[in-house]
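It is worth pausing here to work through a concrete case rather than discussing structure prediction in the abstract. The textbook approach is simple: state the sequence, then state the predicted structure, then interpret. We follow exactly that order.
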Amino acid sequence: MKRVTAMVIGLFVLSVAAVFGSGQQGTGGGGNQSSKVVFWTSHGPPDNGVLQKIVETYNATNPKVQVEFVQVPGSETDVTSLMTAVRGGTGPDVYMLDRFTVAQRASDGLLEDLTADLQRLDPNLAKKYLPFAWEEAQYRGKTYGLPFDTDTRGLFYNKQMLRDAGIDPAELDMKNGPITLDRLREIARAVDTKDDQGNYTKIGFIPQVEQGWHYTWGYLFGGSFADLAAGKVTPTHPGIVAGFQYLYDYNKEMGVQQVQSFISSYLPPNNPPQNHPFITGHLAMMITGDWHINTMRTYAADVDYDITYIPVAKAGDKPTTWAGGWSFVVPTGSKKKEAAVAFIHWATGAGGQRIYTKDSGHCPTLLAIANDESIYEPKQNYFRQALSFTKSRPPLPVGALYWDALSTAQDMVVQNVKTPQEALQQAEQQTQPQLNKFLPLK
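Step two, the predicted structure:
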């Protein structure tokens, strides 16, 4: 979802003059409604520029209802700005919401039910998107959003840094399949460099950096995060515990304080993209998502890097990854619901998704364009293939709460403050009582 990289660094507003006309793709609308639809997103650079392009394209061809693009503070699980605005009667007409949190925000009463509106536009919409992406936008059998992009995660590696450490980067080429975690650690050790004070100046790999989340490591070790039929979260599943144990042991070996000092120095909050240690030659490998292709293209076109499978626990294991992505929703109280639905239908359809896939590096959720090679660049090959073996987060009405609880547990584990079992039991204790309020789930 996006993710930590979707944090906002400022407030940007683009207003386009409002005039009247009709929509595309059978999504005219607006009728006698106001001529302006307000669209909020928490996405920052460089993806906000692509979203702006989508809005401009829509406005140029759909003059009846113009869309105003507004960047607001927020992240995957922080929708404080939206909640405050909706409850104050000043919410936007369209919001870009991390898809795995749709069920929770719908249960909170923040989202309009779009089922009937979308049925009128296209009765077959459910069959046109990746199944897991469509499912994430549902709550209790009703549709509260439309899937936009999707993303998987892979191992990015800086070829020059590996060469400098005596490692042939060809070893990591995806045609060779995934390396093991043991081999990853060997390669990383060859890169690890300290100064005279014992501080890391170069690190081969830090498992919790970028997309080294709980879902990454839990799924890698065969974990299951929820039993939907039983209505239970399962953070203490043996596979998840094993993934957290890997995080615990890796940081302990490297030195918890030394790793934290490196992160504080090279990955401080609001770090400019061009100063990322992967770009500046201080971090050789990282697990992150397809959106980082656009970051590299924008800020580091001269860096020699490539992308491959996330390493596997042992030789012979099948590769794994997980997919997230965002959705377009209509917040509760919008006075322009018809026009808002018309816009999100277009933006999450072929018109908007072609632009976003080509310019951002993300993958589409719309099946009709998934195999259109004209919208991909070569660096996206891994991510396209990864969709065939990807997993996704369980669609829960406490999805954001669960994410935050797992993140807290992960922080305690990487800092060696609690054992994996202790930290994950705490995550279960924080989440399960809240999930119980929504049982049965279906």
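Step three, interpretation. Residues 1-33 have pLDDT under 50 and may be disordered. The chain has two domains: 4-151+324-387, 153-322+399-436.
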